[in-house]
Amino acid sequence: MNDTRQIIEQQAREGTRWRAIEALPWLLFVAYYFVFETRLALGNSVLVMVLFTLSLDLVLGYAGIATLGHALFFGLGAYTAGIVIVAGWPEPVSGLLLAAMVAALFAVLTGSLLLHLQGNTLLMLTLAFLVLAYEVANKWTGLTGGDDGLQGVAAAPLLGLFPFDLRGQTRYWYALVLLFALFLLARAIATSQFGLALKGIRENAGRMRAMGVPVRRHLVVIYAIAGAMAGAAGAVSAHSTGFVGLDTLAIALSANALVMLVLGGWGRLYGAIVGATVYVVLHHFASNWNPFHWMFLVGAALILVVRFGKGGLLGLADRLRERLARRKDAPR
Amino acid sequence: MSTPQAPALAVRGIHRSFGALVVARDIHLELPTGARHALIGPNGAGKTTLVNMITGALRPDSGSVTLLGEDITSLPATRTVPRGLVRTFQITNLFPKLRVWENLALAVASRTGADRQMFRPLSRQTAVLDEAAQLAEQVHLGPDIGRYVQELPYGRQRLVELAIALALRPKVLLLDEPAAGVPSMETGQLLEVLQALPASMTILMIDHDMDLVFRYAQRITVLVGGAVLTEGTPDEIRGDERVRDVYLGRRRA
C-alpha cells in the first residue's frame, strides 16, 4: 500500500515540479533585450507569437481540439484593442483586459456550438467561423478600416509611465511580462487535475463521457481560457505595432501557429516557445535573404522535423539526451 | 423518489429494432439490491446492445429502465453515473498513453468533482491520489501503478477497467465481458476481486466465460436473438434443455 502511494507521489511530483532548465527560455528572453537592443521589434513579435502558440497548445496539444480557427480570437483581441483606442480610450491595460474578455466570450459562444464535434467536421467549422469573421472585418470598413486596416492605434503610456517608444523597449517588456504571467497560468492548468482531465479527453473522449465527465463543459472552459490568451496576444500586437490589419484574422495565422506548435512539439508548453521562436526568427532572416522562396526553407525544416523528430524539436532533443545518457551508462 | 422496495435495476419491456432486425424484443429484467446476476447468450444475442440501452448510450424504441425506482431511460452517462449506474467495456476502453494511477485518478476526480480544479498541482490532490492507490491495491494492480497502460498485458488492463468502474462508486455495476481476452490462469484473480465487492453492490455480468458465470452468479438470464429465453439459478440453467441446445450444447459439442 505504502509503496503504491509512494510511486504515485513520486511520479505526480515529477510531473509538476519546476526543473532548472525551465529558467533557460526566460533568461534568454531577458538577455535578448540587452544584447539585441536594436531588434526589439522582432523580439516583440516573437513573444506575441509565442503567446498565441501557447494558447493553441492548451486547446490542441492538451485538450486535442482540432481547430484551424484559433486566429479568430487573436483577431478579435487585436481589433477590440485597436477599436477602443481609435474610439478615444487609449489606456492599454484596460484595453487588453477588454480584448481578452471579448475573445473569451466568442470562445464560449462558438465553443458551445462546436465542441461536441470532432476531427474534420470541427476543423472545417472552426475555419468557417474564422472566414466569416474575416469577411465581416473586411466589409465593415467604418469600424475596422476594412482592407486598409485600422490606422493610428496609438496607445497611451503603459501604466501611465512607459510610452510605446520607437525603439520598442516598452513593447518588449510589456509582451514579456504578460507572456510570463500567462505561461504560469497555462503551466498551472496543464499540471492540475483539470489538465489531466483534458489529456483524458484528448486520449479517449468517449470513455470520459461514459465515466460521467461533462466533456463539453471542460472543453468550453479551456477553449475560453485559451481564447482569452489568444485575444491578449492580439491586443499586445495592436498596442505594439499601432496597427491592426486583416492578417490578424487570416487562415494563414492559424496555420502558422499550427506549424510552430508541430515544429516545437505539442502538448508540453515549451514546444510553443521553441517552435514559435525558431519559426519567427527563421522567417525574419530567411525572408531578408530571399523574400519569395523563404517558405521553401520553412517547409523543408518542417518535413525534416515531422519525419525524424516525432514530438517536434523538443522530442528530438529528448531522444538525443536519452541516447547520450545510454552511451554514458553503457559498459565499456 | 426511490423506495426501499424498488429493485436496484429494472428493465421493463425494452424493445429496439434497426429496420427489420430486432435486436431487443420485449426484454424484462429485475435485479434486487445486492444481486449477482449474469446475462449469457450466443454471439449476436443482443447482450451489449442491452447494456447500451441500460446506460442510455442507445435509445430503446419502447420500454423503460429504472435505477432504484427512478426512470433513467435514455439519460446520458453524465446523469446516470452520479446516480450510481456504472459500466465496464467489453473491449478495453482506457487511456493507454497515461499511467495506471492517472487512469484511476481521472475516474476518482470525475466522481468527486476534483477535475474542475485547475490551480492546484496534481501532486497536491492528496485525496484523489490516496484513493487511486487504494483502488489499485483492491484489484491487485499495486506493482503496475506507475506503468503506462499500453505496456500492460491485456489481463492487467482488464483490471484497470474494473478499477475505473469501482472508482465511480457504483450502486449498480454492469460488467460487459470482464473476462474477455483474459488468460484462464488470471480469471481466478478477477473472480477473487469480484467476490470481494461489497454485498450491497448490485452486479449484472455479461460473459462468455461459462466457468466464471456459473461460479459467480446467483441468477442467470439467457438471451437469444434479442429475446429472453429463460431465467433461473445456475443449476436450473445448466439443466435446461433449450439452453443447452442454443448455447451450451453448441459450444461443448
What does it look like?
The complex is a heterodimer of chains A (332) and B (253). Chain A is 75% helix and 0% strand. The mean pLDDT of chain A is 91. Chain A has one domain (21-329). Chain A has helices spanning 2-16, 24-35, 40-62, 71-86, 92-114, 119-139, 141-144, 169-190, 193-210, 215-241, 251-264, 270-289, 294-308, 312-329. In chain A, helix 2 runs antiparallel to helix 8 (169-190). Chain A is mainly alpha-helical and 332 residues long. Chain A has 14 helices and no strands. Chain B has one domain (9-252): Rossmann fold, CATH 3.40.50. The model of chain B has no long low-confidence stretch (mean pLDDT 90). In chain B, the strands form two sheets. A six-stranded mixed β-sheet of chain B has the order 6-7-8-3-9-10, with helices on both faces. A four-stranded antiparallel β-sheet of chain B has the order 2-1-4-5, with helices on one face. Chain B has helices at 47-54, 77-80, 100-112, 126-138, 154-167, 184-195, 210-216, 234-239, 241-252, and strands at 9-18, 21-31, 36-40, 62-67, 70-71, 85-87, 172-176, 202-206, 219-224, 227-232. The longest helix of chain B is centred in the middle third of the chain and has 14 residues, at 154-167. In chain B, 35% of the residues lie in helices and 23% in strands. At the A-B interface, helix 1 and helix 9 of A face helix 2, helix 3 and helix 4 of B.
The string of secondary-structure elements of chain B, in order, is: EEEHEEHEHHHEHEHEEHH
On the 0 to 100 scale, the average pLDDT of chain B is: 90
Instruction: State the helicity of chain A in percent bands.
Output: over 70%
Radius of gyration of chain A: 21 Å
CATH superfamily of chain B: P-loop containing nucleotide triphosphate hydrolases
What is the number of helices of chain B?
9
- Name of the top-level CATH class of chain B: Alpha Beta
Q: Per DSSP, what share of the residues of chain A sits in E-state strands of 2 or more residues? A: under 5%
Q: Ends of chain B: how far apart?
A: 49 Å
> How would you spell out the order of helices and strands of chain A?
HHHHHHHHHHHHHH
Morphology of chain B: globular
Q: Specify the CATH architecture of chain B.
A: 3-Layer(aba) Sandwich
Regions with little confidence, pLDDT below 50 for 5+ residues of chain B: none
Largest sheet of chain A: none
**What is the percentage of strand-forming residues of chain B?**
15-25%
Question: What's the gyration radius of chain B in Å?
Answer: 19 Å
Structural class of chain A: mainly alpha
Poorly predicted runs of 5 or more residues of chain A: none
